[in-house]
Amino acid sequence: MTAFRLLPLSAALAVALVSPARAQSLVDLFELARGYDATYQSAKSQYDANLAKAEQARAAILPSANLSASASRAQVENTNPSVDRSYSQQSATLSASQPLYRPANFASYAQGKKSVESAQAQLTLAGQDLILRLSQAYFDVLAAQDTLTFVQAQKAAVAEQLASAKRNFEVGTSTITDSREAQARFDLVTAQEIAADNDLRVKRLALDTLVGKTDTQPKPLATPVVLPALQPDNVTLWVDQAEEASPSINLARTNLELAKLETTKAEAGHMPTLDLTASYNVTRNPSGGSASTVSSRSNSASLGLALNVPLFAGFATQNRIKETLSLEEKARTDLEAARRAVAQGTRTAFFGVVSGLGQVKALQAAEASSQSALDANKLGYQVGVRINIDVLNTQSQLFQTKRDLAQARYNVLLGNLKLRQANGTLRLEDLQMVNGVLAK
Questions:
Q1: How far apart (Å, rounded) are the C-alpha atoms in residues 374 and 6?
Q2: Which residues contact 9 (CB under 8 A, 6 or more apart)?
Q3: Cis? peptide before 63, omega within 30° of 0
Q4: What is the domain extent for residue 163?
Q5: Most confident of 109-113, 290-294, 331-335
Q6: Residue 406's CATH number
Q7: I need a labelling partner for 364 at 20 to 30 A (CA). Which of 65, 115, 157, 275 fits?
Q8: DSSP letter string, 241-295
Q9: What is the distance between the alpha carbons of residues 245 and 243, in angstroms, rounded to a whole number?
Q10: Residue 254: inside a domain, yes or no?
């Protein structure tokens, strides 16, 4: 009987997962994505627009000045006394005003400053979303590469088993059934290889589209794989962090403050306004006027206060206040909903990481057990106490376990980032943590 030979999986993976010279880390690709991704660039433009809009609100409490000028020419014809002449007039006025008491304007100015905080929270959310989308695409490519590598390694092992079954059949030590079972398994693995290769192409295309670079090469995990521990390991601490750190909660809190200021603006509709006004006017008649041919010039200046007291506006102000109070209550409810959603999302993500770490540990044990089972079945096949299908099944189980283990590791790394996104603490520095477990 010909001895069964199988290329060690570790050797196959070492060849397949060697980090190419052009391989990029997560941080490298994030820098590319931040400058290319259309979704993030849209959020950045909206942030810049919100900053400019906030500055506009300041104009309502600053002085305003206007310069106006006019020039005209008139033709006069009278019969008694007889007058037939034309004359011109030139005029220029400089006016200025400074709001002294306008509650609505000062509330708008306060809203402008608060809207900057809102814009910052929205940009932070967009940045965190980009980090997670990039990480997902990055690990999708690594997982697809692993799947293809494992399928190819399984195909090589099945091909070796098929060759062995054919040789054994030729010398009469096994039946045709062994060859047909091995051939069927080989055809199945070939189909899986085609699907895995196509899936890898699709995943790479998604990553390339995200970063604006063709033929990206993510760095694989360093071996041996050492996953970072979950710190802190108390879910309550993660939830408590979210109250101050979560941009979703901060955005909802800012929206509540904006709603309160909107109520203040509405209540200002009942209040008087007071402005300081000043003007200076120069009028010239170079050729006289309608009653005289003598040229003239007049200068006038004024300084005063303009008071406006609202008396009745058809109940518009009262109804506006009712509207803003309802919107204020809505914003308060939205804030509570944001707190609950963030807390639930944080707890879900936390236990997902805990579960993922447990799965990795269990799958590592399963991998060792599957390898032992394969070795035992190979030996049993050689001495005739196991049949070919037993070896093929244990091969399939081993490679499936290895695929599951690799995916579980990626899920833990991605889960750590999702946990930080859930409670609002996700930063670019967190990608450095992931870089620490990638090949150099």
A1: 11
A2: 153, 398, 402
A3: no
A4: 9-63+103-271+315-435
A5: 331-335
A6: 1.20.1600.10
A7: 157
A8: HHHHH-HHHHHHHHHHHHHHHHHHHHHGGGS-EEEEEEEEEEEEETT--SS--S-
A9: 6
A10: yes
Helix 26-36 × helix 176-211 angle, to 10°? 50
Give the chain's length: 440
Tell me the two tokens of residue 188.
Answer: 């199945």
| Residues contacting 342, CB < 8 A, separation 6+ | 239, 242, 246, 248, 249, 422, 423, 424
Query: Would you say the pTM of this structure is higher than 0.90?
Result: no
Mention every residue, 6+ apart, whose C-beta is less than 8 A from residue 413. 135, 139, 227, 434, 437
- What are 367's two structure tokens? 């991998």
Is 97 within a domain?
no
The verdict on whether omega for the bond into residue 8 sits within 30 degrees of 0, i.e. cis, is no
DSSP string, 122-171: HHHHHHHHHHHHHHHHHHHHHHHHHHHHHHHHHHHHHHHHHHHHHHHHHT
Two tokens, residue 419? 């946990």
User: Residue 229 — φ and ψ, nearest 5°?
Assistant: -75, 155
User: In this structure, what are the phi and psi dihedrals at residue 269, rounded to the nearest 5 degrees?
Assistant: -65, -20
